[in-house]
Amino acid sequence: MSIASSIQELKKELPSGVKLVAVSKFHPVEAIEEALAAGQAVFGENRPQEFEKKARALQDRGVEWHFIGHLQTNKLKMVLPYADLVQSVDSEHLLSAIDDWGRKNGKVIHVLLELHVAAEETKQGFFEEEVLDIMFRADSYRNVRFCGLMGMATNTDNEEDVRADFARIKAFFDYLRDLFPEYSEFRELSIGMSGDWRLALDYGATMVRIGTAIFGERKSA
Ligand SMILES: *Cc1c(COP(=O)(O)O)cnc(C)c1O
Fold it and tell me: CA dist 4 to 7, 22, 202, Å?
């Protein structure tokens, strides 16, 4: 299926309140242009250098850029000037560095906190207690806007395991929303990828991050 028709099929199935983030990592700028021509405006990348290159190549094309990968503090300048949302804040060290960068550059950076829910040890992210601790001190990060949570389910064909991961992140998300009603912008739940986005919709996803199902297989990842 072409990039354009994959996007059209997905948009048909996604409820109107759910944002489709087209994950274009490892695919060329031409693939993004094809998606843009099909009406897709939101793109996600996970490597700082590649992100910066594509963001510069497509300046003034109305792209909404999300950064979704592990970010080292020495690479902030490749990402923060262009990112409309950093979905993958996974440490306090990173959060503080983003806040500092924002202060120095007169910007407020919109972020999601990445929650560790998957069974794999390798997956990045905070534990619930750490997120809670940060949220209680959210006002001290003056140049960060907390917009919600991101999470990745365990990479498995077992639907029950994936559902359990999504249920856990959804429950924690609801708990935070109840606890901090003053943060009205804390409302995004970014869960669901090519293999599990339909399940994620059952757990209140407001954003799905889809690569393979739009652009095809990546050469490496
Ligand atoms: C690569 C990636 C995706 C997209 O994965 P697909 O299975 O190709 O849809 C989503 N989220 C993150 C964080 C990723 O790194």
Answer: 5, 12, 26
Phi, psi of 84 (to 5 degrees): -80, -25
Across the strands, what pairs with 20? 208
pTM equals: 0.97
* Length of the chain in terms of residues written: 221
Q: Which CATH superfamily is domain 3-215 in?
A: Alanine racemase (3.20.20.10)
| The two three-digit tokens of residue 8, written as one number | 């059209």
How does DSSP classify residue 62? Answer: -
**How confident is the model over 47-89, as pLDDT tens digits?**
999 999 999 999 999 999 999 999 999 999 999 999 999 999 9
pLDDT tens digits for 9-45? 999 999 999 999 999 999 999 999 999 999 999 999 9
**Most ligand 1 atoms within 8 A of CB, residue of 21, 23, 152, 166 to mutate:** 23
Longest dimension (CA), the chain: 48
The ligand 1 site (C-beta within 6 Å) comprises 23, 25, 46, 68-69, 152, 193-195, 209-213
Where do the domains of the chain lie? 3-215
Are 79 and 51 in contact, with CB atoms under 8 Å apart? Answer: yes
Cβ atoms 44, 50 nearer than 8 A: no
